[in-house]
Amino acid sequence: MKEIKSIGVLTSGGDAPGMNAAVRAVTRAAIYTGMKVFAIYRGYEGLINGEIKEFTTESVSSTIQRGGTILKTARSEEFMTEDGRKKAYENIVKFGIDALIVIGGNGSLAGAQQFALEFDIPCIGLPGTIDNDLFGTDSTIGYDTALNTIVECVDKIRDTATSHNRIFFIEVMGRDAGFLAMNSAIASGAEAAIIPEDRTDIDQLEQFISRGVRKSKNSSIVLVSESKKDGGGAMHYAERVRKEYPQYDVRVTILGHLQRGGTPSAFDRILASRMGVAAILALTEGQRNIMVGISNDQIVYVPFSRAIKFDKPINQNLVTVLGILSI
Asked: Tens digits of per-residue pLDDT, 83-118?
């Protein structure tokens, strides 16, 4: 097994609060163990174009509190091609990088898995996504901060909802995962959450209307995942209410990229720091092609194949809790 003397680190896909804390931890843990660190700017696109710079411990000073990513990020269509990945590998060789640490979501880790298979380079993934949708980890970097941002926004919207006796559909991110919608609904005291995982034969809108508004409430907050399954999205459900229940005054708020920004929470800073150090320790132990996760407050190593392939299930107890508390 080749000794790892230098590592490359990049952030890829959608930015997430805490990515900088992860870059900082990776950089300092690597230097602590005697490795060189090469920062790769703009994700896989930067790896292809050679946007690479050696980092020192000072390079990551005063970054733990910053949102976004100091390394920038970009989605790279070229990296999805064999030719693009070959160019990326040529830069890996050129800069003498022995292993790659990728901080990002499902697509980013899938790219790392493919790259590792084609060029036999050790890759370690850190789950950096606000969606919290990667299998094998209880939480992803950025999820907690995004959740707190959503709750803060919903608290403000409730003030106007109650003043005007309105139903507010608030659309949040999460792609095809309902973790943000479900947990922010519970934390903000919302009346319902419409999530992809619950879209079976049950009409979630009808269920919400029948048990909530019809009984005793003149104003309500409904969190809706942005997923487009079965029509999906807040606008879809708002239009249904206007057609099927015209007696209700409906408003829609789409929080959008507001959810990605802001100073990372203490939880995300600590999680990112632990995972960053664990990534370097994993390399020193000979681990490769795994995602660093957290389970029951313990660091775990999850093969890329499992982290990417399997859908992360939502805790059905949360659905029950929200149903009980929304009466």
From this structure: 999 999 999 999 999 999 999 999 999 999 999 999
230 is catalytic: no
What pLDDT does residue 198 have? 65
Q: Write down the number of H helices and E strands in the chain.
A: 11, 11
Among residues 15, 98, 120, 131, the one annotated as catalytic is: 131
CATH numeric code, 144-260: 3.40.50.460
CA distance 32 to 26: 10
Do 172 and 255 touch, CB atoms closer than 8 A?
A: yes
Rounded CA gap, 28 and 271, in Å? 15
* CATH of region 6-142+264-309: 3.40.50.450
Distance CA 155, CA 47 (A): 42
- Location of structure tokens 């795994």: 290
267: tokens are 């939880």
pLDDT band at 2 (very low <50, low <70, confident <90, very high): confident
Q: Where are the domains of the chain?
A: 6-142+264-309, 144-260
Give the C-alpha separation, 132 to 177, whole Å: 8
Residue 13 in tokens: 């896909």
Chain centre to alpha carbon of residue 161? 29
DSSP string, 177-242: --HHHHHHHHHHT-SEEE-GGG-SSS-HHHHHIIIIITTT-S-EEEEEE---GGG-SHHHHHHHHH
Same fold across 6-142+264-309 and 144-260: yes
